[in-house]
Amino acid sequence: MTIYAWLKIILSILGVLALISSVVFVILGAIKKSKKLSIAAVLLFILFPVSMAAQLMVSVKQYYGLKFEDVSKFEVTSEDLHDGVWDVRISHDKGEDLSPQLSWDEVPGAAGYAVYMLDPDATCWVHMKTTTTSCTLDTGAVGRDGYIGPYPPAGSSHTYIIYVFALKEVKTGGGSLDFPSNGVDEILSIINTFSNSDVGNVISCGVLQGEYPG
Questions:
Q1: What residues have CB less than 8 Å from 7, skipping those under 6 apart?
Q2: In this structure, what CATH number is given to the domain that contains residue 198?
Q3: How many CA atoms are closer than 13 Å to the CA of 163, on its beta-carbon side?
C-alpha cells in the first residue's frame, strides 16, 4: 500500500479511538464529578471530526495529486495519421466511423492499456474509450460502444488527441463516450486508482494527436 492508504488507516483508527475515549471520559466524569475528565472528553470528541477532515484532505491529495505532465511518456503511432491530419475514414461525419490504427511498444509491468480519444477544442469531448491487452489496434478494431469518429462543426478544424495509458490493473473511467469530459487530468486520477482504492495504477502514457478539418 502507498503512504496515502496507510495515513487513512491510521487516521481512521485515531478517530474511532477518540470517539470511544470521549464517551468513556464523559461517563467517568459524570460518575466522579470530575471537571478535568469532562474537559478531556470534549477535547477527545473534537479530535474525531478533525481526524475525519484529515482523511478527506489525504483522499483529495491521493486521487488528485498526480498530474498528466508528471507521467512518463512513450511513443504511439498510427497508419491513419498523415502529416498531422487524421484520415477521413476514421471520421463520423464524412468517413466510415472506423477507429484509428494504433501501435506502441509493450510497457514492462503493464497488465493492459486504457485508450482514449479526446477533442480538447470541444470541452474534451470523448470520441474513444476502450481497453486492450494488445500493443496494436487495427483500423476499426474498436466497436460503436467504444468509438465515435470526429465530427467538428463545418468549416472548422479540431485537434483529436489519443491517450494510451499503461496500467497495472486494467480499467477505464472519466467521461462517457460522445459526451464532454473534465479532461485528461480527471481521467488520470480515476484510472490511477486500483479497485481497492489505493493509487499508483498508471505506469506511463502514450500521446498522439492530429487535426481533422470539418
A1: 58
A2: 3.90.280.10
A3: 29
The helix or strand, by DSSP H or E, that contains position 206, with its residue range, turns out to be: strand 202-213
What residues in the chain have per-residue pLDDT under 70? Answer: 1-6, 8, 58-65
Q: What is the pLDDT of residue 164?
A: 98
**One domain, residues 26 and 123:** no
Half-sphere exposure of 157 (CA within 13 A, CB side): 9
Domain that holds residue 185: 69-213
Cα separation, 196 vs 173, whole angstroms: 15
Q: How far apart are alpha carbons 64 and 61 in whole angstroms?
A: 5
The helix (run of H) or strand (run of E) holding residue 41 is helix 35-64
Looking at the structure, do residues 92 and 33 belong to the same domain, yes or no?
no
Q: How many CB atoms lie within 10 A of CB 153?
A: 11
Cβ distance 78 to 208 under 8 Å?
yes
165 plus 143 within the same structural domain: yes
Residues 10 and 45 in one domain: yes
Residue 9's pLDDT is what? 76
pLDDT value, residue 61: 59
Q: Which of 44, 64, 84 is the last residue of a domain?
A: 64
What is the three-class DSSP state of 48?
helix
Q: Which of 128, 139, 158 shows the shortest CA–CA distance to 96?
A: 139
What value does the CA radius of gyration of the chain take, rounded to a whole number of Å? 25
Cell triple for residue 206? 502514450
Where is the domain boundary, 14, 45, 64? 64
